[in-house]
Amino acid sequence: MIKKKRWHCLPGQPLTELDKQVMFWENKGKLVPTRDLIKTPEQIEGIRKSGVVNTGCLDAVAEMIRPGINTQEIDDLCMQYCKDHNAIPACLNYEGYPKSVCTSINEVVCHGIPKEEDVLEEGDIINVDMTTIVDGYYADASRMFIVGGKTTPEKEQLVRVAKECLEIGMEVAKPYSFVGDIGHAIEKHCKKYGYGVVRDLCGHGVGCQFHEEPEVLHYGHRGTGMLLVPGMVFTIEPMINMGTWQVFLDADDPYGWEVITGDEKPSAQWEHTLVMTETGVEVLTY
To answer: Cα–Cα distance between 222 and 208 in angstroms, integer?
Structure first.
């Protein structure tokens, strides 16, 4: 059986450097993108505009985070910020998710649902994960916050290392490298501290839809996964656990969304939406 090619050159057009590189790796059996994953300059500009709103929303969250507020207040702020900036929160009603933002405290890895009863205490660490839609374009980012500005040395190190993992992943993401290069570098750094990299969830393509190809695993081996080429837009969002990489769904969550660390030790995550350029990635969610 002949394997169907994923990459199709434009009929009647000369081969570009992009065509040559992708065809070279596809002929070697590597997974390559389809042409529709390469965003046009107009699409990238649309995602960039959504990223500006996303960044502004997380900046507003940063100003309000403090002991004594509850996570429903964070959701209210994000919902109002979107309304004020002609944006739509992508999480709201996505596959039954009931709120506009994810608020994940301490041992909650991701998809924490905002609630009035979840009151922040000094020393908590919380991830706020926001995805905005502006004029049909998606931007996705998350940040960690230390409530009250101080926590235990162990949690502080976890938050710092998780951010370093994102930065390292961004640094190794080069044109015509592979998704596995990102995961390998992140996992290598994480293991220096005895931390676990969550395997059940991953980064993803984004921009014209909430979730697109490729899956961006945060562990793995160099030279594996999809080839990364200029024009692709995707997230890197490593979830780093203080203990085991394993996770479970919170049985008390009626929506089936909240993910908890397997040993209920703290977890931390940072995320950016990125576009691959001719020299490396550009962040669209600063």
So the answer is: 28
Per-residue tokens: 127: 């991830």
Count CB-CB contacts under 10 A for residue 176: 15
CATH number of 32-281: 3.90.230.10
Per-residue model confidence as pLDDT tens digits over 183-213: 999 999 999 999 999 999 999 999 999 999 9
Q: Which residues does 60 contact at the CB level (< 8 Å), separation at least 6?
A: 77, 78, 81
Give binding residues as ranges.
Answer: 111, 129, 140, 204, 211, 237, 271
Neighbours of 54 (CB within 10 A): 33
Pairwise CA distance, residues 259 & 28, whole Å: 38
What is the amino acid identity at position 227?
A: L
| pLDDT for residue 80 | 98
Give the torsion through C-alpha atoms of 25, 26, 28, 30, to 10 deg: 80
pLDDT digit string (tens) for 99-113?
A: 999 999 999 999 999
What residues are designated binding site for substrate? 111, 211
For the four alpha carbons of 217, 219, 221 and 223, in that order, the dihedral sign comes to positive
**pTM passes above 0.85:** yes
Q: Which residues sit in the known binding site for a divalent metal cation?
A: 129, 140, 204, 237, 271
Distance between CA atoms of 211 and 285, rounded to whole angstroms? 16
Mode of pairing for the β-strands spanning 108-110 and 259-261: antiparallel
